[in-house]
Design goal:
The complex is a heterodimer of chains A (284) and B (77).
Chain A (H helix, E strand, L loop, with lengths): L4 E5 L3 H11 L4 E5 L3 H21 L14 E4 L10 E4 L5 H14 L5 E4 L6 H6 L7 E5 L9 E6 L5 H13 L3 E6 L6 H17 L5 H11 L6 H8 L1 H15 L8 H8 L17
Parallel strand pairs in A: 1-2, 1-4, 2-3, 4-5, 5-6, 7-8
Antiparallel strand pairs in A: 6-7
Helix pairs in contact in A: 1-2, 6-8, 6-9, 8-9
Chain B lengths: L1 H14 L21 H13 L16 H10 L2
Helix pairs in contact in B: 1-3
The chains are: A alpha/beta (284), B mainly alpha (77).
Pfam family, one (chain B): PP-binding
Protein name (chain B): Acyl carrier protein
Pfam families (chain A): 3HCDH, 3HCDH_N
């Protein structure tokens, strides 16, 4: 099936970044969010980063500023009714996702595939609340999406081979490639990376080192591009916290219990880049 | 020019939580910042010095050090 019109549900960090990435490939996008404010912020951010996209992608030609017209920003879920494919990016909270999928299942055509952009929620569980578990697949995009060609694609218990093939072909058309893994809490990326981030927060909590020192060790000793605390700030500390809770509840293993300092920072609204302050301070 | 340099050094030092940065340091190569900082830096320059960078100036090469940025800003004022 040709995928030309894509629904993106959730206009937070990752949803906006995904819409931005697909827009560069001239796809028509319907970006839906429950909040008008979030949509406005998303539009502003996409416009802004479109101006810099050529710089990061090492292109000589600047992208056409009118590309943003390919995105329809709306609070109306029914606008997704004629989409060929939908990627959902709402908060990592089962109750919220469950409600969204019940609606999507009613609104979208039966042949439409649902990409679950999650870092830790079970794809099999999402599939089970729809009438199309064979067409539900995990797609864990990394932030910022337009700079990250690799996508962790997760095969749910009932995800069909044809769905996987279709998604692989689609990703190729938008400059990306899939690494396909099986459905298990946290998959590969989060199961490992969240241990790093959480333990990094614990080293701050215990006074072992300062954030820049922890990150410096990862960058300068391990050659990581970013340290775990910078990464947590970029993802959003609330998202990291929510993902740890999902991992903790899934495995019932204490190694995933969120650091108390992380919980405290979330309560204080220190969520990282998106609020201007997390482990580091960011300017507008 | 000196005033521009001082402002930029203070901004980059604060933003990168660094102890000391020299004006000729390549801030991206030194691992002081991740590449996404470039966007933040350009927006700061434009707002602070009331200038607008042209498309061809949106280039990592042109903003790799505080000295380079100061020269670019100065040339546009």
């Amino acid at each position: 099936m040709q995928i030309e019109k894509i629904g993106v549900v959730g206009a937070g960090n990752i949803g906006s970044s995904l819409a931005h990435s697909l827009m560069l490939y001239n796809k028509k996008i319907i970006l839906v969010d429950v909040s008008k404010e979030v949509l406005e912020k998303s539009k502003k951010n996409i416009k802004q980063s479109l101006r810099f996209a050529h710089m990061y992608l090492k292109r000589k030609e600047k992208f056409d500023a009118n590309l943003i017209d390919n995105i329809t920003f709306t609070t109306d879920m029914n606008a997704l009714s004629d989409c060929d494919f939908v990627v959902e990016n709402v908060t990592e909270n089962w109750k919220i996702k469950e409600e969204v999928y019940r609606q999507l299942d009613q609104i979208c055509r039966r042949d439409v595939c649902f990409g679950v952009n999650t870092s830790c929620i079970s794809i099999t569980k999402v599939g089970a609340i729809t009438t199309r578990p064979d067409r539900v697949i995990g797609m864990h995009f990394m932030n910022p999406v337009y700079l990250k060609p690799c996508v962790e694609v997760i095969k749910g218990y009932h995800t069909s081979e044809s769905t996987i093939e279709e998604i692989e072909a689609f990703l190729e058309r938008v400059g990306k490639y899939a690494v396909i893994v099986n459905d298990f809490p946290g998959f590969v990326s989060n199961r490992i990376s969240h241990l790093f981030m959480n333990e990094a927060v614990l080293t701050i909590q215990d006074g072992v080192a300062k954030p820049e020192e922890v990150d410096s060790i990862f960058k300068n000793c391990f050659n990581h591009k970013m340290g775990p605390l910078e990464t947590a700030d970029l993802i959003g500390l609330d998202t990291v916290y929510n993902s740890l809770i999902v991992l903790y509840e899934s495995y019932h293993d204490s190694k995933y219990r969120p650091a108390p300092l992380l919980a405290k920072m979330v309560d204080a609204g220190l969520l990282g880049v998106k609020t201007g302050k997390g482990f580091y301070t960011y300017n507008d | 020019m000196e005033e521009i340099m001082e402002k930029l050094l203070a901004y980059v030092t604060k933003s990168t939580n660094s102890k000391e940065i020299y004006s000729t340091d390549n801030i991206f190569e030194k691992g002081l910042v991740h590449s996404l900082f470039a966007m933040q830096l350009i927006l700061y320059i434009e707002k602070e010095f009331d200038i607008e960078l042209e498309d061809e100036e949106l280039d990592f090469e042109k903003i790799k050090s505080v000295k380079d940025i100061a020269e670019l800003v100065y040339s546009k004022m």
